[in-house]
Amino acid sequence: MPIVELHLLQGYDDGVKARLGKGLTDAVRFVLPAAPEAVTVMVHEMAAANYYRGGEMRQPAPALPDPTRIVHDYLSAMERRDLPAAQAMLAEGFTMQFPGAAPMTTLEELIAWSKPRYAFVRKTYERFDAMPGNGGAIVYCFGTLHGEWLDGTAFEGIRFIDRFEIAGGKLIRQDVWNDMAEAKAQA
Amino acid sequence: MPIVELHLLQGYDDGVKARLGKGLTDAVRFVLPAAPEAVTVMVHEMAAANYYRGGEMRQPAPALPDPTRIVHDYLSAMERRDLPAAQAMLAEGFTMQFPGAAPMTTLEELIAWSKPRYAFVRKTYERFDAMPGNGGAIVYCFGTLHGEWLDGTAFEGIRFIDRFEIAGGKLIRQDVWNDMAEAKAQA
Amino acid sequence: MPIVELHLLQGYDDGVKARLGKGLTDAVRFVLPAAPEAVTVMVHEMAAANYYRGGEMRQPAPALPDPTRIVHDYLSAMERRDLPAAQAMLAEGFTMQFPGAAPMTTLEELIAWSKPRYAFVRKTYERFDAMPGNGGAIVYCFGTLHGEWLDGTAFEGIRFIDRFEIAGGKLIRQDVWNDMAEAKAQA
Amino acid sequence: MPIVELHLLQGYDDGVKARLGKGLTDAVRFVLPAAPEAVTVMVHEMAAANYYRGGEMRQPAPALPDPTRIVHDYLSAMERRDLPAAQAMLAEGFTMQFPGAAPMTTLEELIAWSKPRYAFVRKTYERFDAMPGNGGAIVYCFGTLHGEWLDGTAFEGIRFIDRFEIAGGKLIRQDVWNDMAEAKAQA
Amino acid sequence: MPIVELHLLQGYDDGVKARLGKGLTDAVRFVLPAAPEAVTVMVHEMAAANYYRGGEMRQPAPALPDPTRIVHDYLSAMERRDLPAAQAMLAEGFTMQFPGAAPMTTLEELIAWSKPRYAFVRKTYERFDAMPGNGGAIVYCFGTLHGEWLDGTAFEGIRFIDRFEIAGGKLIRQDVWNDMAEAKAQA
Amino acid sequence: MPIVELHLLQGYDDGVKARLGKGLTDAVRFVLPAAPEAVTVMVHEMAAANYYRGGEMRQPAPALPDPTRIVHDYLSAMERRDLPAAQAMLAEGFTMQFPGAAPMTTLEELIAWSKPRYAFVRKTYERFDAMPGNGGAIVYCFGTLHGEWLDGTAFEGIRFIDRFEIAGGKLIRQDVWNDMAEAKAQA
């Protein structure tokens, strides 16, 4: 039965409102055992001239980008080695943790590190999970890797998972786990 | 500025309302760039006699357990090898995916599989991430493993991540990634 | 989907709130094609100290009696010829219209008029319909009559319908239609 | 003092909202002894993009026709013997109960039954009463009949009442009472 | 934390809504020790077709003029001796009380009274304070007077305060205090 | 028609809520020409566990004292020369402005200044006007003075007005105007 009312300044497009409608429904169903159709969300929009804090009008800030999209775009840029595009998505202080590597902070380091390990790698995604966290967003994605070892033999079906932290629309941390060492050990 | 009003049947304890208050705040901040103190949540509670759907009164269903707690309890039971306790937390159709293993469905299988791999293992958690998903909850936890190999040498600092799906308060799927193979390869 | 919120002063019992919950649901479904379970009613109660009109507190007035009950009680009193009880339920200016009779205003008139028509009559109710109207309530009830003619022969299954107007908890008008003349003509 | 708030999807015309405003006011005044001007109804409309159930948008369904109008149109069509128009307003399973007749289900039956009883009949309405009921609407109308007997003599002032049940915008049941037999008996 | 929601018929311009937003914020902060930014006001506007009292639509009345502006305009008209303009702002029954004078009711009286006292006087305002009161508005303004005595010598810095009562947009009472006698005594 | 809803943390007594109810009604009527009984205020109270800002619970702060009472108490203490009581009501930085005097900051100064002017003085109040202002409250009071000159002759009916600014429950500024000089000049 829970009913959620969200009061919002006018000016967000339907996609933003749909993300809010979905997110608030999920937030309720995370705690209460309500069937989906038992959770109602109503978004009440107000003109700026109808909202006052401390007696002053306020302006709506632009909505945040979808963090799943940010991660997806970043991983695509890396796969096609479009380093400028990827670099533009990194926040100041970005760090990466890959299996068996020391923490890295630049894409150049990462590429140098991967060079002796495989010729190329592509991701097949099973699923993205995104949630609010750490004052921004946390995104997980997992699935399998396929590609080519340095000797030209192909590999596929190697499980991986990536975890990203996003703040202010930029990536600030990436953690990677996968079964590459396991695959090599079994090879 | 967003203000969220949640209308709820009476009878949930303060902990449940705090989880809802936090979750709804996060859901808004996931989409809108509002500072935390700019997001207000008001929970309006109603006696059952004050709420009608189709002209009929409804009763509140008990809140769902905190999925982070479920995962934490399960992993603790497994560490201390309390199989009955762990077993009680598994849903019908539970499956596990560990690195380099075929999918497993019983705890006995898992124990048999791990026996030739290490003497014991303990987890140090860096963080739990939980979110609504798949009609239930998804929980990630990650950190490092320490323990003993079969030859009695100790290991520590091996990165791991676990992903769980929970439905109806029970675990239905576990996926595990870690750097054990990497650690062995480097040893 | 319609959601109805009713703001009310505290102090009405659950029966009153259930009548309001049902009535508001019906009022919505009278105009909109919503399934019953798609119409939600929330009753928000306030202490008198939380409600101000013109800056002044107000006290809740007692709920009105159920008009169906009033009509039922009146007709029962008449059937058992408890004239004082029936009389007490009539408003100043009460008038009755029976088939083939001039309008009557007193129970004594009614009894005198019925004496040459039948020995006694009892009602079997098929249904009561009640609704707001004329600043008060309107109640219809219909079903069949059974009883005895003056010559001692029994009758039954004679269709009737009564219409009542109620104001201030008292009956102000009664209109009666039935098939008695039809039955006699066919006899 | 009661205040009613109705949350509704956008798209209903002012006539529909006025019917809802009136109906909700009546529903409150049916239970609480509030003066009309003490009952406030506010209709809050939302764009479809601002309303979510189960996280999904919904579309508003067209409002139901006014049941009083349906009955009025049906009775007019019957008076002028426009059988196709009248027939189109009947639901599957429609039944009629007239004084002294067996239940009838077709207009042809009704016309055959009335032919030996009067040349024609017209209704003068005193009042229509309509209310929600039986998952649809119930309409009463009453007043007097005038017309011509088969022998060409005129009649007038014969009281009648009709009761209709409406579902899905169509008539499903009609019950008729009147003083025709009484009038004939007195003639 | 207090949140104020104001439900209003549509049609007031942004200036009116800003005055309401400011006034409601002040009204809360007059009683509760909330920081300004902790008080939120939301104005919910409704089309006339969405608001019913006693089941009837209502039309919005024009907003009241800002009483500070009325007082300011009146005092300006008096300073430039535009008596018709000033007169037009006075309610029936207007009375004035000046220091050392009997109550006066006409502008002609006032001018006659002031003639033997000074050649002219101008006001420098420090501040206007306006508030609801006596079913209308009360406005205070204070500051200093400058001008010329009858003998042609200038004066300045003489403190004054005026108090006005306003009803229906017109001045009904004026009370004046100042240090003119003090200034003369010290001269 | 305006309807005001105030959402508040639980714990304020009825007197505080009545002050809020009155103040919000006045704030609306200051701008809109609504009859008093056309303005409704509903106070919705919430337990602390039902209110979250930034996902955190908040506690209600004690209501502010009535500023009219503060002024009244201060002026009474001064009349009976209870300097410690009066002193306790002054904020750091308190200043006073009396007719024909330089600004003063201590009660001792004030008493020294008044000594050569009159033997004693008492106030008869016509009215107090209080309003929010300058982040606190502004209080006006006016009426007449009576007392005794130094030569023992009595005076009465001398008009006065005091203006106070209050912040944090303490007096920060007092401005006084009166007709004492006028009275002396006329004597």
UniProtKB/TrEMBL annotation, chains A, B, C, D, E, F:
Residues 2-57 form the 4-oxalocrotonate tautomerase-like domain. InterPro entries: 4-OT-like_dom (IPR004370), NTF2-like_dom_sf (IPR032710), SnoaL-like (IPR037401), Tautomerase/MIF_sf (IPR014347). One of its GO terms (molecular function) is isomerase activity. The keyword Isomerase applies. Keywords: Isomerase. Residues 71-173 form the SnoaL-like domain. This is Tautomerase family protein. It comes from Thetidibacter halocola.
